[in-house]
Records
---
Amino acid sequence: TQLLEQSPQFLSIQEGENLTVYCNSSSVFSSLQWYRQEPGEGPVLLVTVVTGGEVKKLKRLTFQFGDARKDSSLHITAAQPGDTGLYLCAGSMTTDSWGKFQFGAGTQVVVTP
Amino acid sequence: ETGVTQTPRHLVMGMTNKKSLKCEQHLGHNAMYWYKQSAKKPLELMFVYNFKEQTENNSVPSRFSPECPNSSHLFLHLHTLQPEDSALYLCASSQDRTSGNTIYFGEGSWLTVV
């Protein structure tokens, strides 16, 4: 059983469209991170959210942490081909003091010109 | 460039071979990790080292043997692997093992076992 469920698993959109990917859990996390991974590369950190209800913006990307700190979403406005990649969420649990992060299986996003 | 460097980037080895993956971080971090990433599966934590001490072995088979000679270097020694061990092996580091610390990944080592 995966601790973090990401949806959808795959998303294909046209350039200029908006998209939202979700990361859900029944567990509470002390922090949650979003990564983007391109083929053949390691994940690259996009953002860390730590406060329930927190919203962070990174250019066209908007990240939200749920009030209860059990879920998060990533919204991309006016997607571009460069946004193509595997988006991973990773959570650190409140009871876990070892710095271990639980990862979701990821959402593969493809943005076509 | 994340400050975490892995070598080699690609490795093909036979089931009877012995090889090693190397990871070096230039971030001054105290914790280092090995993760395994297989197709369509979540990243799997394999080992955690904090201040050179192994603090986590996530039920990893003994054919994978980690070594952490200092806080900047981490190795994964490979011996008599199976084809199902073919995957992307990712090294990562963080300041320490405190919950919520940001972890930084290397680019990974693609391993193919034939």
---
Amino acid sequence: QSVLTQPPSVSGAPGQRVTISCTGSSSNIGAGYDVHWYQQLPGTAPKLLIYGNSNRPSGVPDRFSGSKSGTSASLAITGLQAEDEADYYCQSYDSSLSGLFGGGTKLTVL
Amino acid sequence: QVQLVQSGAEVKKPGASVKVSCKASGYTFTSYGISWVRQAPGQGLEWMGWISAYNGNTNYAQKLQGRVTMTTDTSTSTAYMELRSLRSDDTAVYYCARGLGTTDYWGQGTLVTVSS
């Protein structure tokens, strides 16, 4: 059981908007630690998608956005495309600066 | 361009040790730390720990304390992760990644299989 809770799966049709939640506690996200998001395509290494709660690395389309409020964070994907079908993970930290991952969310593009 | 190239797949018996390497290129090695993350077959990502390539400081996941050691060789820009007393549930793909917080570049992964 992961300390950060994500829905196991989400789905949407091409062009739609989907959101993935990441719920933590006052010991991690709620304590002010940043949240990062990773995309993992099948058989490949994770790729940084969002860092510092809402920042996109160079090359990541602006269809991807992140936000954080209280003890939770969210990843939003607009204009869903078939190539977005992947697993998505949130990451944050606890007070000992140990990393924490969410359990992952499988996105299916219908 | 930044690259992290990991060593090849390993098959180990229970109780043995494994040492995975991660050779960095394309940036100043000592300016960033290296994090290690593993992923068991069909499972999610598990944070293992990190090491500062600047001063060698480490921070290990509590569940791996006593079994894992992370080191760096600044002369070759290589990071190492050694895991001892291997068990079947250590079977996983092991990734190194640049950074202690934000991990922006990842290695290709190393499959470690623990089987008798």
